[in-house]
């Protein structure tokens, strides 16, 4: 390839917090490994999600000499888009931004000082392939969750398109599917809810998977030692482009907002013995109704373990879950008085700072992939309690395939639109916490071993570092 001053990559993440954070860390990794690479991260707004809007505003001063942010202007037509559910609305809004992306690619292509290396799109931004094709530049997928889940959605897409199977027929089935990227047969009830939708959503979701096969390459936020089985399966699939496992991609520095609340939490942890605290946190959208909250409280109290519990109330539209106003009314009578010596209930949790603290010995989690990778990075074993999206699949993989987590539930599913839902009883929660905190549990040793492997993977000579080098080399060969 002729010598050039810059190779420009355009990175288009889905406008959701977890996806945005991972995209920024990916950009840092790429620019750290190759001084020719410059990256423009395009940020888009979703009208119904003010949290993302506020986060995008906070990025305005985060540009560096080689990573820059372009906030795509508000699209007036997007406010008029009507869709039957938030998933379809989001995709229609993303479609409305195509012209903005087209203009940015044209500007780069007309530059005399740089070469457009391609675009990297998030798992829900596959429509941008059309724009890249207009400029005859390659499109790469950045898959922000597990290799096993990627294999699962590709398999479901194949069942639909190659074998004419209607996935909605599986709803409420007790059967199992043989998914090549999982070691064990996968129960139908842990598949993402959207695949059972009898409307348009299921087909739209699987159409994304179909377009994954059109990519020039697939970058996954995982690492070889963690998901060797799934990655081997993907690599051997001749219908797929090259797969690059470059994780764990994490912001392990955590929040820079060291306010009084964070200081109070960390000071409390400083007073606790090593590995003695069970940490309960369910992500930015994680909340439970009052009856379930009481069952968790009973379980914690009866278990006798020290605990740090991030407790959130249901969000208002366009918001994430927020803090409860009066916890005394919500929790069992006398709970605070009885647990004052061993427990602390908080609102928002500085998750990275908590997981990295030596006092924390276990993590009750919704199994979001960012949270899972953080838990592995800091060597904290998990108890699974998934809520939505791909989290049931993550929980299944952690408990059954990897044997790196204990189960509270695997198939729990949060229904955000129902007035009532299934309740996990206190004795089941308590049993899971006891298994989690058992110092003799083999899960604890496996997680500690994987902690070391996760750190080796990303340093020079490690599997993920090398995989990133392969991606950069292949990308440069493509544009030469």
Describe the fold and architecture.
Helices cover 41% and strands 15% of the residues. The chain folds into two domains: 7-247 and 458-479, Rossmann fold (3-Layer(aba) Sandwich); 260-454, Glycogen Phosphorylase B (Rossmann fold, 3-Layer(aba) Sandwich), CATH 3.40.50.2000. The strands form four sheets. The chain has a seven-stranded parallel beta sheet, with helices on both faces. A six-stranded parallel beta sheet has the order 14-11-10-15-16-17, with helices on both faces. Strands 6-7 form a two-stranded antiparallel sheet. The mean pLDDT is 90. By secondary structure, it is an alpha/beta fold. The radius of gyration is 22 Å and the shape is globular.
Largest sheet descriptor:
7 strands, parallel
Termini separation (Å)?
A: 5 Å
Unreliable sequence segments: none
Structurally, the number of domains stands at: 2
Strand content: 15-25%
Write the CATH fold name of the largest domain. Rossmann fold
How many extended strands?
Answer: 17
CATH class of the largest domain: Alpha Beta
- How are the strands ordered across the major sheet? 3-2-1-4-5-8-9
Q: What general outline do the C-alpha atoms trace?
A: globular
CATH homolog superfamily of the largest domain: Glycogen Phosphorylase B
- Helix segment tally: 18
Mean pLDDT: 90
Helical coverage, percent range: 40-55%
The helix/strand class is: alpha/beta
- C-alpha Rg (nearest Å): 22 Å
The CATH architecture of the largest domain: 3-Layer(aba) Sandwich
């Amino acid at each position: 390839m002729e010598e050039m001053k810059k190779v420009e990559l355009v990175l288009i993440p889905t406008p959701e917090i977890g996806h945005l954070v991972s995209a920024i860390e990916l950009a840092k990794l790429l620019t750290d490994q190759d001084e020719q690479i410059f990256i423009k991260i395009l940020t888009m707004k979703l009208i119904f999600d003010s949290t993302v809007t506020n986060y995008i505003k906070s990025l305005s001063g985060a540009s560096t000499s080689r990573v820059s942010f372009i906030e795509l202007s508000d699209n007036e037509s997007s406010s008029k888009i009507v869709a039957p559910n938030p998933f379809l609305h989001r995709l229609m809004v993303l479609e409305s931004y195509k012209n903005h992306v087209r203009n940015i690619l044209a500007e780069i292509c007309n530059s005399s000082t740089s070469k457009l290396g391609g675009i990297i799109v998030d798992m829900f931004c596959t429509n941008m392939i059309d724009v890249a094709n207009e400029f005859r530049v390659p499109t790469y997928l950045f898959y922000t969750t597990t290799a096993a889940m990627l294999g699962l959605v590709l398999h479901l897409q194949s069942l639909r398109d190659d074998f004419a199977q209607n996935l909605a027929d599986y709803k409420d089935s007790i059967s199992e599917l043989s998914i090549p990227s999982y070691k064990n047969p996968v129960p139908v009830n842990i598949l993402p809810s959207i695949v059972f939708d009898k409307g348009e959503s299921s087909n739209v979701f699987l159409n994304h998977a179909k377009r994954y096969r059109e990519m020039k390459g697939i970058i996954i936020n995982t690492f070889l030692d963690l998901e060797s089985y799934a990655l081997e399966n993907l690599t051997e699939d001749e219908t797929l482009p090259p797969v690059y496992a470059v994780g764990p991609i994490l912001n392990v520095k955590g929040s820079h907002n060291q306010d009084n609340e964070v200081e109070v939490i960390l000071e409390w942890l400083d007073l606790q013995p090593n590995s003695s605290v069970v940490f309960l946190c369910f992500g930015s959208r994680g909340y439970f109704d009052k009856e379930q909250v009481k069952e968790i409280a009973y379980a914690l109290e009866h278990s006798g373990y020290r605990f740090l519990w991030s407790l959130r109330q249901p969000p208002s539209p366009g918001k994430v879950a927020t803090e409860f106003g009066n916890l005394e009314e919500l929790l069992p009578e006398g709970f605070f008085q009885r647990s004052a010596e061993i427990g602390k209930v908080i609102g928002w949790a500085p998750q990275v700072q908590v997981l990295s603290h030596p006092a924390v010995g276990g993590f009750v989690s919704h199994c979001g992939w960012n949270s899972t990778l953080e838990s592995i990075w800091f060597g904290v074993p998990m108890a699974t309690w998934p809520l939505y999206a791909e989290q049931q699949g993550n929980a299944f993989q952690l408990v059954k395939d990897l044997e790196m987590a204990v189960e509270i539930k695997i198939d729990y599913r949060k229904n955000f639109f129902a007035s009532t839902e299934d309740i996990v009883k206190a004795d089941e929660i308590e049993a899971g916490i006891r298994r989690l905190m058992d110092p003799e549990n083999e899960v604890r040793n496996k997680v500690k071993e994987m902690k070391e492997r996760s750190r080796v993977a990303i340093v020079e000579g490690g599997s993920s570092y090398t995989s990133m080098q392969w991606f950069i080399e292949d990308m440069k060969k493509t544009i030469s």
